[in-house]
What we know:
By secondary structure, the protein is mainly alpha-helical. The protein has a domain at 83-278. It is built from 9 helices and 3 strands. The chain has helices at residues 2-36, 67-95, 118-127, 152-164, 191-212, 217-227, 233-238, 242-247, 275-278; strands at 105-111, 137-142, 145-151. Strands 1-3-2 form a 3-stranded antiparallel sheet. The relative contact order is 0.11. Keywords: Coiled coil. Residues 2-29 form a coiled coil.
Amino acid sequence: MIQRLTQELAAARSEIEQLRTTTIQLQNQFNHERLTSNQPTPPVITNTQSSFDIPEPTPTASPWRNPDQVRRLKESLMQQRQQRRQQRQEAAARILQPPSENQGFKYIYLPTKARVPIGQLRSRLRKLDINNNRILDIHYPDRNVVALLVHNDYADELRSHLQRFKVTLKDDFNPCDPKILRDPQYADASDEERANLAFMHHCNRMERALRFIRTPVKFAVARYFYAQGWISKQTLQENLPSNRRNNEPESDPLCFEDENMSTTDEYKNQDLPSDEACMNDALSL
């Protein structure tokens, strides 16, 4: 028994040694062929393969190898850089100008086919060469209506710019109109109740807008909203800086000597999270 196992073990060792030798020979042969030939051996198509015609992939030319594409890319980058530089210069120049006589803000109402997220809407405004830094707030007060909050100094420029692209403004839109209440639960309410509800929802939208307007423009906007009766005095005080909140005279909460209203485009405004968040308490459409 032991002798038979010994013979089998010796035979196995001999076979393993032969396999090692064969492997080394094949490896040396492969290395030699790879060194002597720069072109890989093309695969042989046998009859067992399918007759489908597989198109060879066409190599994509790098844009950096095309002088025309490189030139166009450079021109586009230079235009964007020049535009940003001009915006910064205009913002810096406004600081050195006297306070605007056209103090205040206003909402410009535009029609829209769909209620897209605020970020996407700002992206589309940017494609129209509209400076998003001067759009302080965006929300949807009604179906197919979007509201843009701007400073009075920028309102006429924005209106004329939109009209260049044949955008029809909704100057007759009233955000406090009871007709914009679409929720069926208000169907049986009286006209007075519906008017109060519409005004309440509008005030809620104004309070929400203040959360996403950055300082220091936020302070001037809060004073304007309070002057319009859209927010309470408590909300106004909560949106003023702490030092002014403690030192501001009780009789003058509407002091509009703000140095911030004419420099609104220096500060980027956060996009509202989504159109659903903007309408939680307003319209069940």
